[in-house]
Amino acid sequence: MALTLDQLNAAPAAEAVALLDGLYEHSPWIAEAALARRPFKSLAQLKHAMVQVLQNAGVEAQLALIRAHPELAGKAMVSNQLTAESTNEQSKAGLTQCTPEEFARIQRLNADYNARFGFPFILAVRGPRGLGLTKAEIIDTFARRLSNHPDFERAEALRNIHRIAEIRLNDKFGYEPQLGNDVWDWQEKLAQHTDPGYAELGQLTVTYLTDAHRACAQRISHWMRDCGFDEVEIDAVGNVVGRYHGASDGAKYLMTGSHYDTVRNGGKYDGRLGIFVPMACVRELHRQARRLPFGIEVVAFAEEEGQRYKATFLGSGALIGDFQPEWLDQQDQDGITMREAMRHAGLCIDDIPKLKRDAARYLGFIEVHIEQGPVLNELDIPLGIVTSINGSVRYVGEMVGMASHAGTTPMDRRRDAALGVAELALYMEARAAQDGDSVATMGMLQVPNGSINVVPGRCRFSLDLRAPTNAQRDALAADVLARLKEIAERRGLQYSTELTMQAAAAPSASAWQQRWERAVQALGVQLYRMPSGAGHDAMKLHEVMPQAMLFVRGQNSGISHNPLESTTADDMQLAVDAFSHVLNQLAQEGA
Q1: Count of C-beta atoms within a 10 Å radius of residue 52
Q2: d(CA 26, CA 322)
Q3: Whole-angstrom Cα distance, residue 455 to residue 459?
Q4: 37 — alpha (psi -120 to 50), left (phi > 0) or beta?
Q5: DSSP strands (E only) in 323-457
Q6: How large a percentage of the chain has pLDDT more than 90?
Q7: Pick from 358, 287, 360, 281: which is nearest to 587 by CA?
Q8: CA distances (Å), origin 179, targets 248, 290, 516, 572, 580
């Protein structure tokens, strides 16, 4: 019989510890310490209490826990000495049926890993969906993590231990993140569509109005209809728009959504998570035959990444009247103009101006998005409240000195353009860190026609500067440009810069941020506020209506724009629950 929170909260201390036996390998002290914080109002709260116990336990206790775990497909498995939980998990991953070659490969990895780190390799082999990773995925992860720094790998091992405990806890309580599983499955199915040249490599790439892109739009539109949306259309720029009507005619709408295009060789969850979470919520409303005092408009934006054409935020921009006619003449790498691509897709270009929304008919815009960074993952917190989308500014520049012989030019007589730029890069790093939440990146650094034996006479570079407010961004940019001038003068160099992009910060609307916060707290999840360093569709809607975002923790150090991008069905479930809570708050407010 499945355990309940009421049972756990009411049980005497020793009995409660016994109820949670087996969550952490041979380490009942973690559950025992966490249970001192009873009562728990949710499994999420209990899970995080155990995370905090281990965080506060110190390195030696953490290493002891890691070393209490068996090797994957190791001696304990061969000699049938695994715990029941580990036996079940390794069996589900197929590790008990390895070929001789696979077994030998895993044994070599075990030996190399133990030699490097001094503890066994830990991986939640049941995976982010709970169904089990393939042996190939396990072996690839094993090999990849061998190159990690020891301190980072210790933390990664602990994160996997917590994921193992989460799945085991779900089993004890008979809990299944059903809506999270559905959201996961939608994303897996959508990822079957990818552009030519990438499909053959097993890579996900969906760029604007390719066959794969249009197939995604069709599939999303079909799923929206299945979910019970009252109206579904693909609009004049390829956005997929689903509307679930409010309880009365003339009711305002809550707008939500994100983008379904991807970067080249990208991940499955960037953007798409923000489409499927609200779709799951609408489906539940439809199943309950429930109407709210407002309608819900979910928009799967056709283009956000600017991959095929340099028209970033095309989809959301069209809804605020910011579609630039000159974009239509842009050509992709095959010489196909955007105009030709739109016509081939059957889109009506003349209708684009009609897409502009009347902001007075909307309550606001909210967006769920995978974090695309390491913060929530490192804190072991599943959800984050976005306080602002960072403002950004980008420059391309060139430093000019004097090319000269690397052997005969004394160090004090050089006019080395590359070292001047390198000095600027180090200053940027320190200056951004000074703010605490600014970031500065020199993503391009090139010496044209450089030679190994020539002092660089030219160096091209880029600057990408971001901060949560426009004032902070501008102060950062001013200091970096001032230091660039000072470096050039001191080193006898000349320089030029060109401003290529400037985007205003988009602070979350206070009332909407507070709704997200109440939702997260109601789930028993620790509240964590953070800025967004990446741009999102919410930035465009921010220009005409209030907006606020919710971040979902990413796995694999929160990596994004990468095939390793991932999150768990459990975290997706929490995002669905938080979104539903916001809908209920609005309904109670009589929106």
Answers
A1: 15
A2: 59
A3: 11
A4: alpha
A5: 362-370, 383-389, 391-400, 404-405, 439-441, 445-446, 454-455
A6: 89
A7: 281
A8: 28, 18, 19, 8, 11
pLDDT class for 77, splitting at 50, 70, 90? low
Q: Please choose, from the candidates 164, 180, 173, the residue with its C-alpha nearest in 3D space to the C-alpha of residue 50.
A: 164
Evaluate if residue 34 carries a pLDDT over 60: yes
Burial of 274 per CB tally in 10 Å (0-12, 13-18, 19+): buried
CB 473 within 8 A of CB 390: yes
Unique residue bearing structure tokens 């790439």: 205
Q: Kindly report, residue by residue over 341-380, the tens digit of the pLDDT.
A: 999 999 999 999 999 999 999 999 999 999 999 999 999 9
Q: Is 60 exceeded by the pLDDT of residue 76?
A: no
Reported as type and span, the H/E element at residue 526 is none
Q: How far apart are the first and last CA of the chain?
A: 42
Residue 566, token pair as written in the block:
């991932």
Distance, CA of 405 to CA of 541 (rounded, Å):
54
Q: What's the DSSP call for residue 420?
A: H
CA-CA distance, 366 to 350, in Å (whole number)?
29
- Taking only the tens place, the pLDDT of each residue in 141-187 is 999 999 999 999 999 999 999 999 999 999 999 999 999 999 999 99
Residue with more model confidence, 82 or 156: 156
Task: Please tell me whether residue 465 adopts helix, strand or coil conformation.
Answer: strand
CA angle in degrees (0–180, nearest 5) for 541-187-323: 30
- The residue with tokens 């995370």 is 51
H/E stretch holding 99: none
Axis crossing angle, helix 43-55 with helix 28-35, rounded to the nearest 10: 110
Q: What angle is formed at CA 157 by the lines to CA 529 and CA 169, rounded to 5 degrees? A: 75
Per DSSP, the three-state class of 543 is coil
The helix (run of H) or strand (run of E) holding residue 520 is helix 510-522
Degrees (nearest 5) of the Cα angle 569, 571, 572? 60
Rounded to a whole number of angstroms, the CA Rg of the chain reads: 26
Q: How many CA atoms lie within 13 A of 553 on its CB side?
A: 24
Whether the CA torsion 349, 354, 355, 356 is positive or negative: it is: positive
Collapse the DSSP code of 299 into the 3-class scheme (helix H, G, I; strand E, B; otherwise coil) and give the result: strand
Alpha helices in 237-272 (DSSP H): none
Q: Provide the 8-state DSSP code for 450.
A: -
DSSP classification of residue 574: H
> Rounded CA gap, 107 and 139, in Å?
11
User: What ranges make up the beta strands (E) of 140-294?
Assistant: 231-234, 240-244, 253-259
Mean pLDDT of the chain: 94
Q: How far apart are CA 87 and CA 27, in angstroms?
A: 17
Instruction: Look up the pTM and report it.
Output: 0.91
Cα separations in angstroms, 185 against 127, 188, 239, 258, 556: 14, 5, 21, 17, 19
Site of tokens 């019989």: 1
